[in-house]
Amino acid sequence: METTPMYIAEMVIRWLHVVAGILWIGLLYFFNFVNANFAKTLDADSKKKVVPELMPRALFFFRWAAMFTFILGLLLIYFVYLAPSGARYGNLMTNPILIGVLFGLVMWFNVWFIIWPGQRKIINGIKTGNPAPADVVARATNASKLNTYLSIPLVFFMLAGPHFSSLQWYWELVVVAVGFAIAWHLYKIGAKVSTNV
Questions:
Q1: Cβ of 148: how many Cβ atoms within 10 Å?
Q2: Is residue 74 in some structural domain?
Q3: N-to-C CA span, the chain
Q4: DSSP element (H, E) containing 75
Q5: How many CA atoms lie within 13 A of 56 on its CB side?
Q6: Number of compact structural domains in the chain
């Protein structure tokens, strides 16, 4: 393939998209498999010290990594499927990557419009001693769990895009089911990890 400015731009965007995605999903897994279990061990005084220091920092990288992953992903869709030189991996509408894009869109929405606003209320509640309403906590927690479950099949569909221009619908269901099963097992493992070293 000729090294054109368009090709170089796509390569750089793809690279940064992956780096941002690693940061986003890495923090998602930290929150769900590590921090959620750690937070249960904290008493009220410890929470008041730890949460306001840890969570705003972690959530800053989390939400902005989600935003950059989303924006760079949209640019990639343009370069790979919609630009005049695009459509190298088949039709976007029949490509497995479209499912990954839809999952990513749900996940991005959850971060910016459910998880982050909820976490702000939770953090401020811990700081002030006036806990956030239970429905806010539940909504943020459930959105984070949904993102965790969606993230594993999402990775498959993103990687499958360049290699499979289409998959039968039942294989796509198998991928989602296996991804959800992996996430479920990781939750179970996270709850049982020993602190003994």
A1: 21
A2: yes
A3: 51
A4: helix 44-77
A5: 11
A6: 1
**Identity of the residue numbered 36:** A
Angstrom distance (rounded) from CA 141 to CA 23: 19
Joined together, the tokens standing for residue 37 give 């279990």
Q: HEC string of 89-126?
A: CCCHHHCCHHHHHHHHHHHHHHHHHHHHHHHHHHHHHH
The Cα–Cα gap between 28 and 92 comes to: 27
Q: Determine contact, residues 103/157, Cβ cutoff 8 Å.
A: yes
**pTM (predicted TM-score):** 0.92
**Other C-beta atoms within 10 Å of 15: how many?**
11
For the stretch 18-73, pLDDT in tens is 999 999 999 999 999 999 999 999 999 999 999 999 999 999 999 999 999 999 99
Residue 197 within any structural domain of the chain = no
Question: pLDDT tens-digit profile of 172-188?
Answer: 999 999 999 999 999 99
Residue 70, domain extent: 5-192
